[in-house]
Design a protein that fits this description.
This protein has one domain. Helices cover 70% and strands 0% of the residues. The protein has 18 helices and no strands. Helix 2 (26-37) packs across helix 4, helix 5 runs parallel beside helix 8 (133-146) and helix 14 (245-270) packs parallel to helix 18.
């Protein structure tokens, strides 16, 4: 939070002390939307064209921000680009923050929950970066709130995650193994409508360009052009300590396969319990090689679920220590990575996954004993 205040106070002509634009990544969203309004959405994937629009949005900006998002998200950025850049940024971040607070407050109906929800450091990373993690966290929280009482609506919230499809890859699997068919079909229909709308507006060609662009992202990661200190994936963690690209990928996908296997077994045995949801969200992050620290905003949900579970049933020291680490890590992750060349984010996310699985299994055993 203090870093956010410091950055805002250093802004001059929409540029901070590092000559980067207010909102950082948001300039990519706005610029892609601007190109879509101009009738050339495919130009968002062309470096020279999107840099040209970024200069139009914030003259003097020296940083290049590339576009890697699907046409589903471009539907939203097209609306955002209809108003000037700075107003659009505050509208997007302010609206996303209010949605995040509202959604998590409904999920965690405790008088002090709002304090932890607002104080979580990853929230401010998302706001400073102008990213969309508050939106995705809010959608997941709404889905969990509605899951049992209004399964069709829960599926709608899950389907809307198609604006960032990598966050929804595991959800159909756990819905199938736990036989949550009403949620599954609602999510499938919503996703289909969302994708269909993007096809109607932008055509098939933009989706083809999006899929081709994935190789560009892989190349940028492999060549070390991205900020590794801000990327808490196992792939980047191994790269930072000196392992080769191929080995890091093999180990990452091996770990991801194990996480998916454990998660599916857990949902098969437990169904949609709070601890199953607490395991699902870190699992979603663990399988992604391309992952930035602001996505840790999603961990607000499992951290709060685990904290509530411990408040109700008790917890040992190591469990509480993992929760504390999960809460503070987004604040210190980049600094430790930059100064010491190690990535602490991955082991913390993995520990939260193990903690959630452990408590879920413990609940199953206690139920059997009863």
């Amino acid at each position: 939070m203090f870093r956010a205040i410091a950055l805002i106070s250093s802004v001059d002509n929409m540029l901070d002390a590092t000559n980067s634009p207010v909102g950082y990544d948001f300039i990519t969203f706005w610029s892609a939307g601007y190109l879509a309004l101009e009738g050339v959405p495919e130009a968002a994937f062309i470096r020279e064209r999107i840099v040209e629009i970024q200069q139009l949005a914030v003259p003097g900006n020296d940083t290049v921000f590339l576009w890697h998002y699907p046409p589903t998200f471009m539907l939203l950025t097209t609306v955002l680009a209809a108003i000037p850049y700075l107003a659009s940024y505050f509208l997007f971040i302010g609206g996303s923050f209010l949605f995040y607070v509202y959604s998590l407050k409904r999920l965690f109906q405790h008088r002090y929950a709002i304090l932890l929800i607002v104080a979580y450091p990853a929230v401010y990373l998302t706001m400073v970066h102008g990213q969309n993690s508050l939106l995705s966290t809010g959608l997941l929280a709404c889905a969990i709130v509605c899951f049992r009482s209004r399964p069709v609506l829960a599926g709608v919230f899950i389907g809307l995650l198609a604006f960032k499809p990598q966050l929804g890859v595991l959800i159909p699997l756990v819905l199938i193994v736990s036989q949550q068919w009403r949620v599954f079909w609602s999510a499938a229909v919503t996703t289909g409508v969302f994708v269909g709308l993007s096809l109607t507006v932008f055509g098939w060609e933009l989706w083809d360009i999006f899929f081709q662009n994935m190789s560009v992202v892989k190349s940028l990661m492999g060549q070390g052009f991205l900020l590794s200190e801000k990327m808490p994936s196992l792939y980047i963690t191994l790269k930072m300590i000196g392992f080769g690209d191929h080995f890091a990928y093999v180990m990452h996908w091996g770990m991801a396969s194990g996480v998916v296997g454990v998660l599916m077994w857990l949902w098969y045995r437990c169904g949609p319990t709070n601890m199953a949801f607490a395991a699902l969200i870190p699992a979603i992050l663990l399988i992604l090689p391309y992952l930035f620290d602001y996505e840790m905003t999603l961990l607000a949900i499992p951290i709060a679920l685990l904290a509530m579970d411990m408040a109700d049933k008790g917890g040992v020291f190591w469990e509480k220590a993992i929760l504390v680490c999960g809460f503070v890590t987004p604040l210190i992750l980049a600094g430790i990575g930059q100064n010491y060349g190690i990535q602490i984010g991955f082991p913390v996310i993995f520990s939260l996954f193990i903690l959630a699985v452990s408590r879920a299994v413990s609940d199953v055993r206690k139920t059997k004993d009863v």
